Amino acid sequence: MLFRLLDDKPNIFPDPHFGEEDGLIAIGGDLSPERLITAYNNGIFPWYGYKENEDIMWWCPLDRFVIFPKEIHISHSMRQLMKKGIYKTTINQAFEKVIENCSKTNKRNEQVGAWLGDDMISAYKRMYELGLAASVEVWDKEGNLVGGLYGININYNFFGESMFSLVPSASKLALIYLAEQLKPFNGIIDCQFETPHLLSMGGRHITYDEYMKYLRA
Q: Per residue in 201-215, pLDDT tens?
């Protein structure tokens, strides 16, 4: 059963255990910081094709795909690439450029189901201004931004939203760097959905109830 969110009650979401099988739990509402903070603190995130849907769609899969920073897998080829020192990695040096690239790289914004539209971009820029979103950037030796990722960062748990690469393995470098920064804090990297790319880097499935223990630790 889907729950329609009320505009004047940004702190209310339904129990994810009663959502749809695919993880969809609610529609409607807005992308205000207050609502987003409530959502992410409960493992809920917005994701909808802005060209096809008028309503925001809110998701909370009970089967969660995450990376534990201490379990990040770094392949031999990635270690060799890192040793070469071809790329520099930073945090929060170009958030707006990262999110714009995530939106448009490979013409993502022109595809059916494109979800990172102006409303979403504005919402996450606002979260960044509040210190609740972060980006990781990858630069080449000429100072060009060639890859990165961004997401929500709350209590040392990182909720990954999107990543991009303009050169091979740049997004992997960003993810490895992020994991290294989070290792001392015993948080998790929420990948939202499984992909072969993230599975190869150490991602695994946990239940929603186990997931919430880490969020509330």
A: 999 999 999 999 999
Can you tell me the distance from the alpha carbon of 77 to that of 147, in angstroms, rounded to the nearest whole number?
A: 18
Tokens of 43: 């493992």
Q: What angle do CA 89, 91, 93 make, to 5 degrees?
A: 100
Q: Among all chains, which residue has been given the structure tokens 């290792």? A: 183
pLDDT band at 7 (very low <50, low <70, confident <90, very high): confident
User: What backbone torsions phi and psi does residue 152 show, to the nearest 5 degrees?
Assistant: -95, 135
Tokens of 182: 């989070």
Among candidate residues 170, 167, 160, 168, the one with its CA nearest the CA of residue 195: 160
CA 137 – CA 22 distance, rounded (Å): 32
Tokens of 160: 């990954």
Let me know: does 109 contact 150? Beta carbons within 8 Å. no
Which letter, b or e, does each residue of 166-182 get, where b requires 16 or more Cβ atoms within 10 Å of its Cβ? beebbbbbbbbbbbebb
Q: If we measure between CA atoms, which residue out of 138, 107, 109, 131 comes closest to residue 121?
A: 109
Q: Annotate 190-205 with b (16+ C-beta within 10 A) or e (fewer).
A: bbbebeeebeebbbee
Residue 204 parent element (H or E): strand 204-207
| 93: helix, strand or coil | coil
**CA separation for the pair 5, 11 (Å, rounded):** 10
End-to-end CA distance of the chain: 30
Give the predicted TM-score (pTM) of the model.
0.93
Q: Give residue 49's identity as a one-letter amino acid code.
A: G
